[in-house]
Amino acid sequence: MVLDSIETAPREDLRQVQDDRLRETVRNAYENVAFYRETFDEAGLAPADVESVDDLSKLPFTTKEDFRDTYPTGMFAVDMDEVIRIHASSGTTGKPKIVGYTRDDLDVWTDAVARCLVAAGVGPDDVVQNAYGYGLFTGGLGLHQGVEELGATVIPIGGGNTQRQVELLVDLESDVLTCTPSYALYLAEVADDMGIDIRDLPLRTIIFGAEPCTEPMRNEIEERLGVTGIDIYGLSEIVGPGVSVECEAQAGLHVWEDYFYPEVIDPATGDPVEEGEEGELVLTTLAKDALPVLRYRTGDLTTLNYDTCKCGRTCVRMDNITGRSDDLILVRGVNFYPSEVESVVLEFDEVAPHYRIDLRREGSLDRVEITVELVEGFDGSSADLEDRIETRLSNVLSFTPDELNLVAYGSIARTEVGKVQRVYDHRGR
Ligand code: DLL
User: Fold this and answer.
1) Where is each AMP-dependent ligase C-terminal domain found (predicted)?
2) Is the dihedral of CA 220, 225, 230, 235 positive or negative?
């Protein structure tokens, strides 16, 4: 099932739509946003130089810093009286990135999310419990409006309130839950404590996003909750959730390319990578009026696959994002991603899917401390387990952590609201 015919349209037809919309987006950005006018002028470019998506590579990138420098609304292309909604990124450092939507922009976003829900197998008869935070974060209202558009039932519970969440899953027989992957696992733990096994409930799908989730973590969620886990991606600067989503084939996330144009670049050089190679995702909006964004460097690492999916959709698929270019941890000449630690931790049945990475400085040396939780009721030899985990970590990461702590089940704080934090850098740079 697809919601809009463009999802399965021949790529030449899609291309026509993209080219038309890009020209309009560039015109809007140049005429109405001082930042874009200046960057075009500096690069010696005129809007007419961009006739098709092939010309995009002529344009400079837009970065997070550009949003910060123009805080709060300097990137807006319309007057505030045309803006009917404001959201903001959930960045933990510096000023948030403020984003705005006209009524047409909200329609585009709503349609993008409704397409995601259909791709995930959600229908008008379903009850969707929305546990993304409502408010400035785009997750709550973003999913909410998509569910209503589809005519399914939305339960707008938002983040936290976990016992109540479990009660509602039982009492309202929710078919679908939308939340972060870390929260899905926390919910299962709270349900256990309440004597409820989520696998026995009607819940069949979790639409998770806003945080990276490795394949082993997805398997853990699927097994623990007895559901299909569908990955949804998006970011405030581009629209919020709904830029891309997996279909039921779970074989990459379909990007709604008539609304968002994706490129993948080498983060070091800014050059495009070959198709199928990993790099940083760069997105251009094609149908937004209040906040047109050209070549935005998302920081998220992925690859693109242009093969038609077995679901029939012709739009490009991106790989699940398991890291950001700025997540890379550099310690004593080696580097690794937190997702690599996650994959190792989840290989061991004796440990729970909760971990944290602490980076400290002692004298002039950096130390890496990894803490993982034992499963509930663990009664084996923790020295032997520690050796085995350490060996795997050294093989995968090519270095041995300075300290590996195995701690009792429940020792690592859970995240009830917002995004989980797994890396704590105490080095104070
Ligand atoms: O997290 C929007 C969202 C809400 C997406 C609900 C999915 C579900 P921001 O707070 O602006 O927006 O954060 C965007 O979160 O650049 C990624 O680094 C990360 N992210 C979002 N979705 C995924 C995902 C929302 N499915 C930033 N997998 C992005 C991995 C994700 N990372």
Assistant:
1) 333-427
2) negative
